[in-house]
Amino acid sequence: xxxxxxxxxxxxxxxxxxxxxxxxxxxxxxxxxxxxxxxxxxxxxxxxxxxxxxxxxxxxxxxxxxxxxxxxxxxxxxxxxxxxxxxxxxxxxxxxxxxxxxxxxxxxxxxxxxxxxxxxxxxxxxxxxxxxxxxxxxxxxxxxxxxxxxxxxxxxxxxxxxxxxxxxxxxxxxxxxxxxxxxxxxxxxxxxxxxxxxxxxxxxxxxxxxx
Length: 211
Known about the structure:
The structure is a single chain. This protein is α/β, with parallel strands linked by helices. Helix content is 27%, strand content 24%. The protein has 6 helices and 10 strands; from the N terminus they run βββααβαββαβαβαββ. The longest helix has 15 residues, at 59-73.
C-alpha cells in the first residue's frame, strides 16, 4: 500500500502489528489500514459473512441497529426514500423503517447486488458495520456522496479507533474482514473533504449531512 485508501496521501506510518497483520496509519486523515497483502479474497470474505445469522426477528440485533435507526428516524418523514447499503443476508433496518412507514431499498455486494440502486439518489443512506470492510474508502464515499440528495443524511455505525494503546488490545481488529479503521479525526477529515456536516451521535455512530 503506497498511499492512504481514503485521502491518497503517501504519508503512512507504522501503527501496530499483531500475530495476523500489520496496520498503518495515515499522517493526514488518521485512517488506520491493513495493507493489501493481508486482505482476504472475495470468496473467503463471503464465506465469512455466510456464517452471520442476523435477521429482522432478532430483538437483540434490532436493539443494536436501533442505536443508528432510532436517532435517524426522528429526522425522517414517510415521503423520504432510503437505502441500507451493505444490508447483509438478513436485511433488518429496512424492515424497521417499513414498520415506521418509511421505505428503504436494500443493497449488498454479495446478497442484494442490484447495481441499478447505486445510480439513484436517496434522502438517507444507512451503513451499519460496513465501512470497516471496504478497501476502497475514497471510492465508496465518493459514490455515496453522489447518491445523497441535498440535505441527505449518511448514517454510519462502526467502532472507532481511540489510540495506539487501546488498539493493541482491541477485539474489533481480530475480525480479518475488518480492514479500515476510523477515528473522530478521520470523520472530521471526511466531513471537510466532502463539505458535509458531521454529528457524533454516540460511541459507534456518526451522521453526515449533505450540503
